[in-house]
Every structure is written in C-alpha cells, then in structure tokens.
Specification:
Blueprint lengths: L1 E6 L8 H12 L3 E6 L5 H8 L3 E5 L5 H11 L6 E5 L1 H5 L16 E3 L4 H13 L10 E5 L2 E4 L18 H4 L4 H4 L2 E4 L2 E2 L9 H8 L8 E2 L2 H14 L4 E4 L8 H14 L4 E5 L6 H9 L2 E9 L3 H7 L6 H13 L3 E8 L6 H14 L3 E6 L7 H8 L24 H19 L4 H7 L6 H23 L3 H16 L1
Parallel strand pairs: 1-2, 1-3, 3-4, 4-5, 8-11, 11-12, 12-13, 13-14, 14-15
Antiparallel strand pairs: 5-6, 6-7, 9-10
C-alpha cells in the first residue's frame, strides 16, 4: 500500500513515532511519504503520490486542525484515514464526535503502533472487513464504532527497525545537517506523576507486559554508529523520559559508549534516582548536560498534587553533585498548576535559584485529556473540560479558570522566570513588573533569557565560543524561515 504521513510542520524535534512507523512499513514493502499540510501545494503532492491511506500523528492542540485538513483532503482524494499519537491514545472518543463523521476519520490507533499498523493494513488490504477487529484500533464502519483493546507491549525493542530518518531528511535536508542527533534507548516510565501521560498509559497497558523496556546497549550503539557514518554529528541527545532508571544498564552504557563513541551527549534524568557513582559514570562517558524535572518548588504540591515523591533536599543535593562533575543542568518546571498560588509559583523560581541551574525551562500547565491532574482540575472547577480550546501556546498561556488579574500576573511571571531564577536578585522587582499589562518587553526578556540559557548549554557541548554560536544561529535561521 501507499501510505502518506501528514503533519502540520517540522519543528526542531521531528516526531519519532512517524520515523519508527515508516521504518517498519518500509520493511513490510509499503511505500511511504511525508506531507506537510502547511505547504501550499500539499494537495497536489497527494494527488501525485496517490495514497491508499492517510496517517496523522497528532497531539492535543493540533487535533482540530488535523481533522479539518483531513476533511479538505477527502474532497480531492479517496483514501482511508487513520489518526494516531498522543491525542487519539488518550481521547479515542474523537472518532465518535459529530465532526468526525464517517467519511472523515475512519480509524484511530491507540498506543504502540508498529506491529498494530502492519496487522491493520494487511487486513484492510484484503478488503474483507477484518480490520474492525484489530487490536489497538477503534474503527468506524457503516456508522458503527468498533472498539478494540490494546495488544501486549513490544517486549524486545531490538526487533524494531532503527528510525527511518530519511523520511524527515528527504523532506527537510536541514535536519540531516544538524550537529545534534536524537536517539531513544528504551520505552516506558514506571512512575505515576499525575500530570504526565505515562501514568494513564501504564493503566491502559496494565497486564500487557513490562512497562520499562530497554534496547540492548550494543543495539543502541550500532544505531549511533550507523547514523554517524551516514550523516555525521558532533553530539547526541537521548530523549528517554528517565535515562538513569536502570543502574546496571547505565553502567554498561557509560563504559561502552566511552570506548566506542565518546561524543558529548545530553539526557533526561530523575533526581531521586541519581547517586554520585552514576553521575561520575555519566561525566566520564562525556555527558555534558542533563534535563531534570523539578516541576514545582513546593514540596506539598509536588507530592500531593503531582504525585512526584522527591524532596527539595534531594534535588538540591543532586544539582550540587552534577555541578561538581561539570555537567550542565537544565530544569523542567511548571507554573499554573491547579490549586497553586502565585506565592507558590515563586517557590519554584527560588528552588531553581538554590540549585544554580544553567537553564531553568518553564512552561504553563495544560489540562491534557486523560491525565489525573486534568481530572482533578475539572472536578475542582479549575478547568471546564473543553479540550477543543487548547492550543500549542502552553509555553505562554494558561487554560485554567483564573481571574483576569491572576492570569495576567501568572503569564507575565512565566516570561520572566528563566531570567530571575538565574539572577534571583531580580525577584523582588519582578513582583512589581508582573502587575503591568502584558507587553513586548516581557517577550523580549523571555527570548533573551531563553537564548542565553541555551547558549550556556551548547557552549559546553560544542566548546566555548564560535562553534556554539554558529550552531545556535543555524537553528535560529531555520526557525525564522519556517
């Protein structure tokens, strides 16, 4: 079959899901292409390709536009439509809603899609109607919805083909030239943070296999070598949620990576799972920077509202060890958490200041479908439950039911947060500034602090000075073009 993946745009983090699905589809002799529906001639591209199936990988916020685009495409092309990704996984009911009529959305894929999509397409190709009973799929046929459960999780990740990077690189050669390439070492997260999709994902797959699955170190290094030989790069980013979950795996990785690759890398870690030996191992293996979730500086909110059971003391201690081993620290933080006051938001900024983070990254909490924190927000009247009003502006805007005054101050604080957590002497004056109307000054401060924070990290990865500046300029030019 001929499969067209459709996405809104290519940003600096091309979707891994599409690259994995493309790899396994090609392995099973399907023809695949990528269409960006922000391009003016995307309809003509589809007419030339003549796909049998349209596939959309969508997040909440992009779902409305994708549904409308699919309607428009079907005015010109007769093809079967499948929607997958985070939004359909946690809100498969989208196929039941009025705007998702029979001729628009034909099926949604829930959860891991690699083996499910091969099974589905094989049945669909036979034309005998068997596809309606494929695991992982909700299917609309003759105005009826067939709801199937998920199949077991993929146990051996080494069996999955390496990412099909070419589907991205052929569409946008800029990504092939990027000096940082992304890799995934495993899947799954055992923790039950109430704001995170992993909590609900684990419930979805309860009894369906091991949640945490890691590729063998040898398999991961083999992919790294292949990508380096074919495309070249100067640094890596491992995008696993918790790269330091398995101590023995991490120990083996650090030794082999140092021996066989030895390029600078960045990874995501969890503070309460790191110890001094692990940090030293990462440093020796050439780990230059880590992402670490603080989320909030208020321990009660972190433990009771977010179900993230770690103390401020643990976080501060871990950051001290990271600094001692010359590993840059990028923290992930949320403002506007349901029940959080402005005073408690400032506690997050104070904790980042105590940790002496190199880059404090802040985003506004958004009530995405399916998470426990979203249910909490709805039950306690912080959110009205209308997911259609969500968009991708979560970096700047809150969707919760704040008063206009509270909303203005919180959104202004978000713009200042990166700067004042790095320079805490500015915190007192920020408490006056956030009372001002929203204005361009806050946007400029945000962009300056964000750029400077990233430069601090890239200067460590690429070496101080001109190399990191050139890289950031290349990335910035690409963003402006798009």
């Amino acid at each position: 079959m001929k499969i067209a993946f459709l996405i809104q745009k290519l940003d600096l983090t091309p979707p891994l899901g599409i690259q994995y699905l493309s790899a396994i589809l090609k392995k099973h002799n399907h023809e695949v292409c990528l269409i960006i529906f922000k391009e003016k001639d995307y309809i003509n591209q589809l007419k030339i390709f003549k796909p049998d199936v349209l596939m959309y990988s969508i997040t909440t916020g992009y779902h409305k536009e994708a549904i409308e685009i699919n309607k428009e495409i079907k005015k010109h092309i007769k093809a079967y439509s499948i929607f997958g990704g985070p939004h359909p996984t946690f809100y498969p009911q989208m196929i039941e809603e009025e705007e998702a009529e029979e001729e628009n959305i034909n099926a949604v894929c829930i959860g891991e899609g690699e083996y499910a999509i091969i099974d589905f397409l094989e049945k669909l190709g036979r034309g005998e109607g068997e596809e309606i009973h494929t695991l992982n799929f909700w299917v609309k046929k003759e105005k009826k919805i067939f709801k199937n459960s998920v199949r077991p999780l993929i146990e051996n990740l080494d069996d999955i083909p390496f990412l099909d990077r070419e589907i991205i690189y052929e569409k946008e050669p800029f990504f092939a030239k990027l000096e940082i390439k992304r890799f995934l070492a495993g899947r799954g997260c055992p923790f039950s943070c109430k704001y995170c999709f992993n909590n609900e994902y684990n419930k979805l797959y309860s009894g369906k296999g091991k949640i945490i699955r890691l590729r063998s170190v040898d398999n991961l290094i083999k992919e790294i070598k292949q990508v380096k030989e074919k495309y070249g790069f100067k640094a890596l980013k491992f995008v696993d949620d918790t790269f330091n979950f398995n101590k023995e795996w991490l120990k083996e990785f650090c030794i082999k990576y140092k021996e066989e690759i030895n390029l600078p890398f960045i990874c995501n870690v969890r503070a309460d799972l790191l110890n001094e030996d692990m940090i030293k191992g990462l440093a020796k293996a050439n780990c230059m920077a880590i992402y670490m979730g603080i989320e909030t500086g208020n321990e009660k909110i972190r433990k009771e509202i977010l179900n993230r059971n770690m103390s401020n003391e643990q976080i501060i201690k871990t950051c001290k060890l990271l600094r001692q081993n010359k590993i840059k620290i990028i923290t992930q933080n949320m403002l506007g958490i349901p029940s959080e006051t402005l005073k408690e938001s400032y506690e997050t900024i104070y904790l980042n200041a105590k940790c002496k983070t190199d880059f404090g990254n802040y985003a506004m909490f958004q009530p995405y479908p399916g998470t426990e924190l979203t249910k909490f927000a709805i039950d306690n009247n912080y959110f009205d439950g209308n997911f259609d009003k969500l968009d991708m502006s979560y970096l700047h805007n809150t969707s919760l039911n704040y008063t206009p005054k509270e909303k203005k101050q919180l959104e202004n604080l978000l713009k200042l947060s990166t700067l004042i957590s790095k320079h805490p002497f500015l915190i007192p004056i920020s408490k006056l500034l956030i009372k001002l109307p929203k204005n361009i000054l806050f946007d400029l401060i945000y962009k300056f602090a964000y750029g400077l924070g990233l430069w601090r990290v890239f200067s460590k990865v690429f070496g101080l000075g001109i190399n990191s500046f050139k890289y950031m300029k290349k990335v910035n030019d690409f963003i402006k073009e798009k």
